[in-house]
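in:
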């Protein structure tokens, strides 16, 4: 396959311009960017206009300079792990001491689960799969159950473990159970031998914002369930402290 060198150069230069705006800060001008990067002024102006049109950059109020746009702020939010305030960390640590099971704190993006605080004594198994396959985890099911467009988010489900549900009808039933019960659970669906309960954490306006997850061996799911109400209480206390 012949590589399109002009397209590669355009992409490379566009990324370099974005990095230059980030480094130089709000108000950097096209002339300053061109000089910094050694790109021809005409090429710089063309790429800047394209990046503004696509909302990766915005013009400053005086129309002379540039700043990072809304689409880049969204990318930054997606990769930035929220800071857990001290008061929330104390609540979380106290609950961890009260149970022998793993306790993890998750943040919800519009279509993704983000690990905010991993239990230091019980690392998460299947962390990569957790973030990629919402249908296979308790936290993912909790998020999907709150979205009317969950089928679009799931796409064609893939089997991660022996009990992973890959049929939309079966998954729809699971999500309805989540809505009815007010929490989600999964066993042997993300990682063989592992079960998880996910209790919702709401923000100040009552929207689902994250989850408190309680994880342990799947053969101890009944014991895990006995901690559900205390975990729900912890999640309720965390909401105002986190969001």
């Amino acid at each position: 396959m012949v590589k399109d060198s002009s397209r590669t150069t355009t992409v490379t230069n566009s990324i370099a311009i974005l990095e230059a705006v980030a480094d130089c800060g709000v108000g950097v001008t096209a002339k300053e960017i061109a000089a910094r990067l050694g790109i021809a002024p005409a090429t710089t102006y063309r790429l800047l206009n394209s990046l503004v049109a696509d909302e990766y950059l915005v013009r400053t109020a005086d129309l002379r300079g540039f700043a990072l746009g809304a689409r880049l702020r969204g990318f930054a939010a997606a990769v930035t792990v929220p800071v857990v305030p001290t008061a929330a960390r104390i609540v979380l640590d106290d609950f961890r001491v009260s149970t022998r099971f793993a306790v993890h704190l998750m943040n919800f993006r519009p279509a993704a689960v983000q690990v905010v605080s991993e239990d230091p004594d019980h690392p998460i198994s299947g962390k990569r799969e957790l973030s990629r396959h919402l249908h296979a985890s308790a936290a993912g099911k909790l998020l999907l159950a709150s979205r009317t467009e969950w089928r679009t988010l799931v796409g064609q489900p893939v089997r991660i473990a022996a009990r992973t549900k890959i049929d939309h009808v079966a998954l729809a039933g699971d999500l309805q159970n989540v809505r009815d019960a007010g929490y989600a659970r999964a066993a042997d669906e993300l990682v063989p031998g592992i079960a998880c309960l996910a209790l919702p954490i709401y923000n100040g306006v009552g929207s689902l914002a994250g989850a408190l997850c309680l994880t342990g061996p799947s053969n101890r799911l009944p014991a895990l369930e006995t901690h559900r109400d205390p975990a729900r209480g912890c999640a309720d206390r965390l909401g105002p402290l986190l969001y």
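note: The mean pLDDT is 91.
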